[in-house]
Design a protein that fits this description.
Elements lengths: L2 E2 L2 E2 H32 L6 H18 L4 H24 L7 H23 L15 E4 L2 E4 H23 L1 H11 L1 H6 L4 H23 L9 H16 L4 H21 L7 H12 L10
Antiparallel strand pairs: 1-2, 3-4
Helix pairs in contact: 1-5, 1-8, 1-9, 1-10, 2-3, 2-4, 2-8, 2-9, 3-8, 5-6, 9-10, 9-11
């Protein structure tokens, strides 16, 4: 057993891998939340339910429609994004100009209804989803065994998060999105359909949660509670990174996953609370978050 200064390197790197995988999901979910709040000023408490819908969508597609993982990875996020578009048009838009508390309560209610519906239909016990054949197996590294599917999660999350950041921060489309939320009247004067842009942005943020749900299905049990168990942690991560900060959501999600993994190794009793402890410290020192801007 390899040790260094009394530290079991196999155990340490194993927990770091778990933390990095969790951080990949944290980054995707917090990125979706940051897009929706940062660009639209809507607090979407249904993001965890959309993550759950992504996992259930992949499970239903495989078991009832014969759609494999790779096709589900494309189709299910599109379907979840379409559900998000419908929610925005029918329920969120009428209260979009009210206090943020209204959208929080509305989306929280939607999340509870979806969770209750799926619990009624499928029960509360988790259901397995097989790892695709192409990603079974793994690689033996010097201090750990790296399963291929876990490596895929990390790479796919990094590519999607990096591509989303580049699109919003570095392209003309991203400039239109930012300008449309800051001064919609001016953008409409230039012929930009701002309401459509808002709807598509909301749908894209929700689709990111669906994408994370599909990738999570082979790792965690597919259950109605999987989104609610994760959402509070993701909200804490968004607060740490800075509400509305796109890059902050990505970096903080990955960073907090690693911190959580290290805590599980050195002091397991604190692993469920360490992220909230970090949130308290950050808010005391920098209320706007690590990457947020003061109002």
């Amino acid at each position: 057993m390899a040790t260094f200064l009394g530290i079991n390197l196999f155990g340490l790197f194993g927990q770091l891998l778990v933390g990095l995988i969790n951080g990949s999901f944290y980054a995707l979910l917090s990125l979706g939340l940051a897009i929706i709040f940062g660009l639209l000023k809507i607090i979407n408490f249904a993001q965890g339910a959309m993550y759950m819908l992504g996992a259930f969508g992949a499970w239903l597609a495989l078991n009832h429609l014969g759609i494999n993982y790779w096709a589900a990875l494309v189709l299910v996020p599109l379907a979840v994004g379409a559900i998000g578009i419908l929610l925005e048009r029918v329920l969120v838009r009428p209260i979009a100009h009210e206090d943020h508390l209204y959208s929080l309560l509305l989306t929280f209610g939607i999340a509870l209804m979806l969770q209750g519906l799926f619990t009624h239909l499928f029960g509360s016990s988790g259901m397995p989803y097989a790892i695709p054949d192409e990603l079974k197996g793994g690689t033996r590294l010097p201090f750990m065994y790296l399963p291929d599917y876990r490596a895929w999660i990390i790479v796919a999350s990094a590519v999607v998060c990096g591509g989303t950041w580049w699109m919003i921060e570095k392209t003309r489309l991203g400039a239109y999105l930012r300008a449309g939320t800051e001064n919609p009247q001016l953008m409409q004067a230039f012929g930009i359909n701002v309401p459509l842009m808002v709807t598509l942005t909301f749908g894209f943020g929700v689709a990111l949660a669906g994408f994370a749900g599909v990738m999570a299905a082979p790792v965690y049990s597919v259950s109605p509670e999987m989104g609610s168990n994760l959402l509070i942690v993701v909200f804490a991560i968004v607060v740490i990174g800075g509400m509305g900060s796109i890059g902050g959501a990505i970096l903080t999600g990955l960073g907090m996953g690693i911190v959580e993994g290290l805590t599980k190794y050195f002091y397991p009793e604190a692993s469920t609370t360490v992220i909230f402890l970090v949130m308290v410290i950050v808010l005391l020192l920098k209320p706007a978050g690590l990457f947020g801007k003061e109002a």
